[in-house]
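Bench notes, afternoon.
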Amino acid sequence: MATNPYRPLSRGPVRRIGSTVLIYAVLIFGAVIILTPFLLSFMTGLKSPVQFSNTSSLSLPSPITWANFQELFGPDHNFISPIAVTVQMTVVILVVQLSCSILAAYAFARLSFPGRDIIFWAYLATMMIPAVTTIVPLYGMFTAAGLRNTFWALVLPTLFGSPYAIFLLREYFRGVPDDLEAAARIDGCGTLRVLWYVVIPYSRPIIATLTVITVVSHWNNFLWPRVITSGPDWAVLTVATADLQSQYNGNWTLVMAATTLALLPLIVIYLIFQRQIVNSISIGGFK
């Protein structure tokens, strides 16, 4: 029996094509919603105050001016100091916090000691306490210790580990094959050598993800630096930008230039670590 060469396509491929188009349309719409504020911030920073007030906020800067960025680094604002303080604070917190979190997570995941699970869940329960509730006690402690308006006041509260980081690393370390650790111990490795040569290389994706999360959270930290510091000596980038906004309430082009300046390092860091972040998500989902 001859088949009909003009038989219409089955509904299966058509439905798959339609669902794919719908998914991509939703993703594109979401990307536009998320990226538009950043694009508007950058475009506003490239406009003069007169151009910003006389044109639509969605219009492209014409002509492009870099005067706002130059003014930020001028003698009136001197944004070099807030950037330097923010970089120092973020780097110190990242290195020490990540090191302490890795050591604690390995102890909770791979070592046996009395009360291990009780200590872990009690420490993890501190994530349920809002950070705002600890601001006043911390302020009193650092003021009594004479550390107010110092660099150590910026870094000490979050320096020695993070409950979220320890929880995430612990769950990942528990997935390290026991055979790898056993083989390393047969070769004569102690606990620290096993951690350094086996567990950490195996966990690079999740460590890269935590690196990005830690940098972003502390680079954008505002409340604690605002409370514990005063004056320009130890002002971080977020505080300096807030002071700029309150001091020059009508000059939004200058404020948006400062905001764009604060965003650029985070975008660069994400572009560097994006593959490791995707790998950590895919490996975690596979497990």
